[in-house]
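FORM 7B: Structural annotation worksheet

SECTION A. Query
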Amino acid sequence: MAATCDIGLIGLAVMGQNLVLNMNDHGFKVAVFNRTVSKVDDFINNEAKGTQVVGAHSVEEFVGLLKTPRRVMMMVKAGDTVDQWIDAVAPHLEPGDIIIDGGNSHFPDSGRRTKALAEKGILFVGAGVSGGEEGARNGPSIMPGGRIEAWPHVKGIFQSIAAKVEDGTPCCDWVGEEGSGHYVKMVHNGIEYGDMQLICEAYQVLRDGLGVTPEELHDIFTEWNKGELNSYLIEISAQIFTKKDEDGKPLIDNILDAAGQKGTGKWTCVSALDLGMPVTLIGEAVFARCLSSIKDARVEASKVLHGPDKALATDRAAFIEDVRKALFCSKIVSYAQGYMMFKQAAKEYGWHLNLGGIALMWRGGCIIRSQFLGKIKEAFDKNPDLSNLLLDDFFSKLLNDYQDGWRGGVIRAIEYGVPTPAFSTALSFFDGFRTARLPANLLQAQRDFFGAHTYERIDQPRGKFFHTNWTGRGGRVSSTTYSA
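SECTION B. Predicted structure
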């Protein structure tokens, strides 16, 4: 067959199929292949029936269908499967051809693949894709990174199929070098963990402190979604509260409180630790899921350990407003921490990240899409060298103005014995970040006392280290290495 296809896609699970149909809708001719070849014919004869999608039954046939430079996109399971497909496809490609990994790959793998394929003259793109099945079909957020030379050849396709914001701008732009596309997707997923945990904490504080019903929660969340908290996750949470089970009761009350996870939140936390960045909220969100999973232990503990016995609050409007402010301020901190990771990762790995563009890419199509992201883009448009999101005029004023309500929301949770690890750690981070002098001076003294790890002095230049013989029995020799 003639090489008439604009792009080829390997992996016909739901995400892959929906991306293919999305591409077809936008006028691109797509070749498809799958390890289980029968799935190709099944797709062509059903979901793709009546389209210009072309099925292939071998790797050779698949590659032969593609125009040059050949663009091969993989939507397969992360890990070894990606490497296996690269090994299968690469021998049939030529210098200048492009391999795109659109799966949920770990960013170091994408960095490694970029370098390895470059030695063969093949351009690699690691593209984070967010939005789930619906996003893939109707417009996802796409976060491509890797070899910049590939961008002109995939830009038209990606920006056509991506979600669009109000003015028609696509939620897709070039992110940066090597594994940066998948890094941004990883942090997106980590922030998603944080957003979901924050919403869950707001739900429990309102439920246990005010005694509100799911129907009332629907009304509260619907109202929130009309203002500053407008977002996809607030919107779907409002809808969830209205769903009835077969017995006529709210379905939410019949769902077991044991959360699952696929690991991308953990990846974010590990990267934050590697970079030395205090991304505390995502960490607490991951640990909250872990705590939820030990359901049997919690049930046993509930029979022995007791919280406060407090009557339901009566100041309904003030209570709801405190929780709203706690949720919004904590959300700001979560994004600020995510952007701290971006800046440090760019420095660590030599990437040139499009910080304002990342916020725009998240404005539509993805799970964390929200009105609030426009303010992040404005902050970096106004000051591309902004050191921390919390120092932007808009965000600093909001946190200063809202902090009484934020603290009130956390205090109310404490009074009712409701665990709010994400609310609380966000407030602790805010208080720590705005504090010019933390108690780490005592910590450094302790380290020097027991391990001769040395310390710096406030009356001496940074980088000059000292050791004290604290007991009079120690020696003059200090530790040979210093680690902050």
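SECTION C. Observations
Strands lie at 7-10, 30-33, 54-55, 71-74, 98-101, 123-130, 141-146, 176-177. Residues 316-349 form the longest helix (34 residues).

SECTION D. Sign-off
Analyst initials: ____
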